């Protein structure tokens, strides 16, 4: 194909970015869109620790400078305030595309999934970079197949309140495969299941952050509906390992990346009580429209082809986010002059 490759700086690997790990591994230049967000910032930590050069592109829609501040002053780290809905010119080896208004509170308003993904694919095509899309389990909608395999096409309402997110990601997957087939871009697709950990947005309405913050603030845990709907919760370090294995591996995907341990929201509330405050009360609230009844990844494909599986259980992972939440809630209270 005829697309241009970046210049000839011998320090950096080129094109496929397929570089051997360990001693003698060449530094890659990597863009992480949404790198100031929850998942992105943990990915950045790991890439910097591995010795790579990292450029974060973020418009701070839901992300925070605080998540990456510890890299300021490191010459291998760069933070660019930019909205991926606008074109950008860069020269890199790999693009991890995470930018997305990811929470129910924010995702209704934004064309990032379509326009942002198109721009990052255009960038990947021009410079011959490898492109990884962080898609979501939401592409399966309210699934009629359980657990969900990558071969399942999903059960999604195209005009519902969640459609901007799930249909947006489905379109992003389509664009990714079109650029792969049509323009020869080397692509990877991850379908991420519910993930939690330190630096998660405090007030974006996700169930884990809600329950943990509520328990710390001594407020009742709000269970929506009857609380019998299920989700599978993955600790963020497991996800980051999965994303990197996918990027460095040989397979396009899509791959489910999630923890198959399945919990009802009532069970989750119980684990949060055991972890933070056994006296916390539960309060039932009406559920949102189109809420999927159950969700659990089948991860056999990632196990077989990426040699990846999660290692951190919910009971091990939840305590690891409590101190971070406590500190941030304390700072917030101090900010309010309480
Ligand atoms: P997050 O909100 O913490 O991170 C998203 C980041 O993207 C934020 O820093 C935000 O400021 C940035 N962003 C949003 N729109 C942008 C734009 N137009 N231009 C530049 N930056 C923009 O969310 P997260 O949980 O870290 O999610 C990261 C990715 O993983 C998202 O693509 C999300 O859809 C996907 N994902 C996450 C989960 C999960 O449980 N956390 C589950 C499924 C998929
Ligand atoms: N693009 C970008 N940076 C680049 C190359 C492309 O932001 O280095 C954007 C470009 O502005 C366009 C999108 O990516 O909106 C798709 O680019 P492509 O070249 O595939 O499509 P075309 O511009 O030919 O329609
Ligand atoms: N949920 C809940 N209490 C809350 C927030 C969410 O019971 O305070 C429920 C929500 O109705 C859904 C599940 O928890 O059934 C997971 O919601 P979340 O928004 O975290 O993730 P998603 O629905 O995207 O999987």
UniProtKB/TrEMBL annotation:
GO MF term set: NAD+ binding; UDP-glucuronate decarboxylase activity
Coiled-coil region: none
A Gene Ontology cellular-component term: Golgi cisterna membrane
Cellular localisation: Golgi apparatus, Golgi stack membrane
Pathway given in the UniProt record: Nucleotide-sugar biosynthesis; UDP-alpha-D-xylose biosynthesis; UDP-alpha-D-xylose from UDP-alpha-D-glucuronate: step 1/1
UniProt membrane topology term: Single-pass type II membrane protein
EC code(s) of this entry: 4.1.1.35
Domain (NAD(P)-binding): residue spans on this chain: 32-319
Main localization, broad class: Golgi
Names of required cofactors: NAD(+)
Keywords (A to Z) from UniProt: Decarboxylase, Golgi apparatus, Lyase, Membrane, NAD, Transmembrane, Transmembrane helix
Glycoprotein listed as a keyword: no
BP terms from Gene Ontology: D-xylose metabolic process
Function of the protein: Catalyzes the NAD-dependent decarboxylation of UDP-glucuronic acid to UDP-xylose. Necessary for the biosynthesis of the core tetrasaccharide in glycosaminoglycan biosynthesis.
Sequence similarity: Belongs to the NAD(P)-dependent epimerase/dehydratase family. UDP-glucuronic acid decarboxylase subfamily.
Protein name: UDP-glucuronate decarboxylase
Origin organism lineage: Eukaryota, Viridiplantae, Streptophyta, Embryophyta, Tracheophyta
Portion of the full sequence shown: 83 to 420 of 421
């Amino acid at each position: 194909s005829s697309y241009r490759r970046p210049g000839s700086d011998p320090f950096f690997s080129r094109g496929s970015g397929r570089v051997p790990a360990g001693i003698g591994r060449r530094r890659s230049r990597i863009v992480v869109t949404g790198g100031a967000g929850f998942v992105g910032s943990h990915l950045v930590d790991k890439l910097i620790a591995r010795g790579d050069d990292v450029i974060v592109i973020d418009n701070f829609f839901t992300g925070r400078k605080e998540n990456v501040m510890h890299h300021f002053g490191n010459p291998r780290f760069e933070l660019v305030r930019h909205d991926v809905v606008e074109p950008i010119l860069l020269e890199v080896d790999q693009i991890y595309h995470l930018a997305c208004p990811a929470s129910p509170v924010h995702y209704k308003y934004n064309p990032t999934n379509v326009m942002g993904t198109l721009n990052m694919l255009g960038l990947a095509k021009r410079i011959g970079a490898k492109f990884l899309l962080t898609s979501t389990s939401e592409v399966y909608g309210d699934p009629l197949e359980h657990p969900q395999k990558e071969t399942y096409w999903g059960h999604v309402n195209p005009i519902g309140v969640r459609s901007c997110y799930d249909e947006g990601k489905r379109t992003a997957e389509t664009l990714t495969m079109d650029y792969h087939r049509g323009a020869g871009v080397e692509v990877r697709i991850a379908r991420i299941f519910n993930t939690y950990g330190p630096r998660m947005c405090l007030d974006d309405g996700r169930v884990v952050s809600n329950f943990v913050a509520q328990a710390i603030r001594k407020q009742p845990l709000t269970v929506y509906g009857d609380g019998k709907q299920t989700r599978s919760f993955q600790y963020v370090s497991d996800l980051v390992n999965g994303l990197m294995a996918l990027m460095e591996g040989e397979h396009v995907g899509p791959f489910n990346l999630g923890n198959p341990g399945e919990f009802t929201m009532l069970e989750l509330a119980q684990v949060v009580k055991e972890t933070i405050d056994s006296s916390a009360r539960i309060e039932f609230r009406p559920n949102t429209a189109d809420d999927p009844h159950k969700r659990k990844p089948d991860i056999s494909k990632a196990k077989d082809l990426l040699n990846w599986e999660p290692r951190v259980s919910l009971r091990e992972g939840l305590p690891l986010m409590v101190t971070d939440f406590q500190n941030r809630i304390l700072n917030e209270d101090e900010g309010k002059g309480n």
